[in-house]
# Entry
Amino acid sequence: MTQLALLLPFALPQKEMARDLLRELKTPALATLLGRGDLTEHQAYDGFARALPHETWLARQSGLAVNGDSSPSAARNAMDAFGLPAADGVWFILQPVHLHIARDHLVLTDTQQLQLSEEDARSLFEVVQPLFAETGQALLYGDANTWFLRADELHALQTSTPSAACGHNIDIWMPKGEKERNWRRLQNEVQMHWHDHPTNDAREMRGLKPVNSVWLWGGTSNSNAAPANKFEETFSLSSGRNPLMVAGLRHRAVSSAAELLATHPQHGLLTLDSLIAPSMAGDWSEWLMRLQAMEEIWFAPLLEAIKNNQLDQFSITLSNNIALSTITSSKSSLRKFWRKASLSRLAP
# Structure
């Protein structure tokens, strides 16, 4: 049985915008998939949760430990993906970030806007690695945006994913709990070491945002169970791996449904994340344009794949920051002519 799951974060627009936005969309294939498919999951989430709904969903699909009081336990899984050995202890994901000053608080900028090169990241990493070593904490490099910190004493911290905190007053989303002051002192040391650093000066000369802080999340101890695979392969628009996806799965970068279907997926997960940035920025014209473009590239070919038996089952998981829905389609559900093609499920 050939199955494909599509994860489409932030395809659910804000409630107050939904009616106007859906009126502008001309996506008949998507309307058919949503209108005639079966609603197999719908959940409401706390807007102050420490992970976004699609992150929690993905972590659960990957078998990662999910605790509503903290971010998913993703560090060891992500280290496996980079081939890094994780000694016994508590490991966190540490991401270089940019914080900007609002009127009376600090705000975390979307990490996708950072455009951090490997050269710049290595330079900044080498500056602060000795700082962590002085406190007995190992700091390992994964890639430009993903570092790993062993910090056993911080095991009780409740952390948030960068995406959950993005665009908000960071005081609400900063690590909380026992030893939080220890972490804040260390974070301040990093910020001071990077202030006016030549790498940041050069970035600003190129019109890029300086890297002025780090974000801690994904704490995992060796007592966490190994993740279980619910999918056999994963697909996305880029070759980069999501820390919340199970390490070791075959991953392919694809640019269209035709390219994906040519691989003959058996039980795959496709993630299309291009709606996240415009939704978070409130750029609804860009959101509309990107979702509209998916009709020809993705939705119409995948609908045809169900009709011609290339796919036995196809599910779409849609989300925003407070809700998540999954609609599952098959050839039999498409025969339910009494169900009208409709985009109404984009506004649950």
